[in-house]
TrEMBL record:
Species whose genome carries this gene: Chlamydomonas eustigma
Signal sequence coordinates: none
Lineage: Eukaryota, Viridiplantae, Chlorophyta, core chlorophytes, Chlorophyceae
Residues of the full protein shown: 102 to 361 of 770
TM regions (residue ranges): none
Family (UniProt): Belongs to the triosephosphate isomerase family.
Organism superkingdom: Eukaryota
Subunit structure as annotated in this protein's UniProt entry: Homodimer.
Name of the protein in question: triose-phosphate isomerase
Length: 260
C-alpha cells in the first residue's frame, strides 16, 4: 500500500467567469463527492479545490460537509498593510483555506516571481500554519537542453531556504510541473515523470534526510486528464496530481481523483 496520502488538487486559475458559475461548479463537485462517500467507503484521497480568491468563500461554503479542502492560488508574504490588491495568509485562513500554491509557473513567468519571492511566500504560508504547494518545473527549452535536474534542483533549494524538516514532512507539498506540459495537452510520460519525481526525492534526501524524502508528497502536474491519470498514479513517487484544465469540468476532475 502507498505510504503517503494521495493529494489531488484542481487549480481553476482565472476561471470561471462569475460567482454563479463558481457556485454551480462547486455544487457539481460536492454532489460527486457525496456519491463517492456513499459508494466507496474506503475512499482515502485528499481532494483540494483551488478557485480564484474572490470565489474562495462561496466554494468553501458549497463544499463544506464534503471531504474537499480549499486552496488558494497565491498569497502575499506580508501579514497586512499597504499592499494594494494583495491577499494575506490570515485572510485565506479565515475563509477556510488549507493549501496555498507557491511558485506556479504562471506566477513565475507572467508575474516575474523569482525563487526568492516564492521562498518568502512558502515561509509565510508555513508560519501561518497553512500548507504550501511549492510548484517547480522546467521550460520547454530547458527540457530540450537537458537541464531538467539543474532547474528542479535550483528551484527546490531556493524555494526551501529556511524550511524545517518538520514542515517539509508534515505540511509542504511539492508539485513537479514541467512547463511544456501545462495547458498544452502534452503530458510527461509516466516514465519521465517518475524519473524526475525520484530525482526530486533524492535532492530532498540530500538536503534533509531519508525520512523526510520518504514522507514528502510530490504531485505531478501538466495536462493531467481522466485518460492519463491512472497510469501516472501507478508510479511509486507520484503522490497525486495538480490539475488545471480538467479540474474545470466536475465530471473529469471527479474521474481524476477517483483514479483506479
Ligand atoms: C496547472 O496549471 O497547474 C496545470 C497543470 O494545468 P493543466 O492541467 O491545464 O496543464
Amino acid at each position: 500500500a502507498r505510504q503517503r496520502k494521495v493529494l489531488m488538487a484542481g487549480n481553476w486559475k482565472m476561471n470561471p467567469a462569475s460567482i454563479k458559475e463558481a457556485r454551480e461548479m462547486a455544487a457539481l463537485l460536492a454532489s460527486s463527492l457525496r456519491t463517492i462517500a456513499q459508494d466507496k467507503p474506503g475512499f482515502d484521497v485528499e481532494v483540494v479545490v483551488i478557485p480564484p480568491s474572490p470565489f474562495l468563500h462561496i466554494v468553501a461554503d458549497v463544499l463544506s460537509g464534503t471531504v474537499a479542502k480549499i486552496g488558494a492560488q497565491d498569497v502575499h508574504p506580508e501579514s497586512k498593510g499597504a499592499f494594494t490588491g494583495e491577499v494575506s495568509t490570515g485572510m485565506l485562513m479565515s475563509m477556510g483555506v488549507s493549501y496555498v500554491l507557491a511558485g506556479h509557473s504562471e506566477r513565475r513567468n507572467l508575474f516575474n516571481e523569482s525563487d526568492a519571492v516564492v521562498n518568502k511566500k512558502v515561509k509565510a504560508v508555513l508560519a501561518s500554519g497553512l500548507s504550501p504547494i511549492l510548484c517547480i518545473g522546467e521550460s520547454k527549452e530547458e527540457y530540450e537542453s537537458g537541464l531538467v535536474k539543474d532547474v528542479c534542483s535550483k528551484q527546490l533549494r531556493e524555494g526551501l531556504v529556511g524550511v524545517s524538516a518538520e514542515d517539509l514532512q508534515e505540511k509542504l507539498v511539492i508539485a513537479y510541473e514541467p512547463v511544456w506540459a501545462i495547458g498544452t495537452g502534452l503530458t510527461a510520460t509516466p516514465a519521465i515523470a517518475q524519473s524526475v519525481h525520484s530525482y526530486i526525492r533524492s535532492v530532498i534526501k540530500e538536503m534533509y534526510s531519508p525520512e523526510v524524502a520518504n514522507a514528502v508528497r510530490i504531485q505531478y502536474g501538466g495536462s493531467v486528464t481522466p485518460e492519463s491519470v491512472d497510469e501516472l498514479m501507478t508510479c511509486p513517487d507520484i503522490d497525486g496530481c495538480l490539475v488545471g484544465g480538467a479540474s474545470l469540468v466536475a465530471e473529469k476532475f471527479s474521474r481524476i481523483f477517483s483514479y483506479q
